Amino acid sequence: MEVSKSSIQKAVANNIISEQQGIALYNFFQEENQHTPSFTFTHILYYLGGLIAIGAMTLFMNLGWEQFGGAGIVFISMLYAGVGLKLANSFARKHLIIPAGICATFVVCLTPIAIYGAQQWLGLWPDDNTVFRQFHHRIKWLWLYMELGTLVTGLIVAWRYKYPFLIMPIAVTLWYISMDAVMLIIDHEDLWNSYTWQFRALVSMYFGALMTLLAFWVDIRARNTADYAFWLYLFGVLAFWGGLTSQDSDSELSKFIYFCINLAMIGAGALLVRRVFVIFGALGCCLYLGHLASTVFEDSWLFPVALSAIGLGVVYSGIWWQKNEARITKSAQAILPKALQELLANKA
């Protein structure tokens, strides 16, 4: 729970703590949270600058770099990486954790372009029209070498520097692998037929589920340190929900199960205090209710009335939960493993 200055001032006004204690407490929280990402102007500048630099070497890469040839691309990438590591070490010595993490992440994000250059230099890149600028918007098995190299580099750098933002390129790379690896075993000539699409959706769903479980394991392991699981949860849930939603079935039972899975995601998000579960779960529920309104009960005047009643029932269940939350939570957590109890306690 975030404690604001106004909350401390209210505590002082109600004589819960003295004014001097309020000032000391506020200064303590400010010092504790200066290295935690937050919506402040300083942190906005940090991440804006970092994302511009990372985007320049990834999403916004143009064909101009092809003029340097493979060796030139490798050399420039190594030069950039050296500068990034030097800045990361310099910021780390000054205890500027967020800028240090952004610079270390920048180094990891240089890995795909460096491997691309090395493949060109060694004559291992195929003679077709595929160039690096397509890396982030074309699904191809050719990218797997770059992705595996990025994964290894990301793990090494994350092990060395231990900044949470370093998990971002690792999570993105895992997501990319889940899409590109499928291209090794499907027919490239017919990517969009129903069978191929269903297969790709299934791979995405199962890979996303495994990635989400990995995030949960990381969350438990790092429960007393920083939030290393955020990016893994984000892209794991994205891959899982995207694959789940892309499934095609004419069965109303299957659609209802889809709705129940999304409700379970909302519950998991509330339990783990992870908004990504709630956002995608709510989207899924809205899609199902939209299906009911437009297809199943298209001409029924009673459906909106019943849906309104259900909505009010959910509101009243929230009131009941608020009254009994402490007792139910205490009883439920008592049967959980100790590590999970500690994780939930830290989220409270």
From TrEMBL:
Identify the stretch annotated as signal peptide in this record: none
Q: Which UniProt keywords apply?
A: Membrane, Transmembrane, Transmembrane helix
Which sequence ranges are marked TM in the entry? 44-65, 71-89, 96-122, 142-159, 166-186, 198-218, 225-244, 256-273, 278-297, 303-321
Presence of keyword Membrane: yes
Q: What name appears for this protein in its UniProt entry? A: Membrane protein
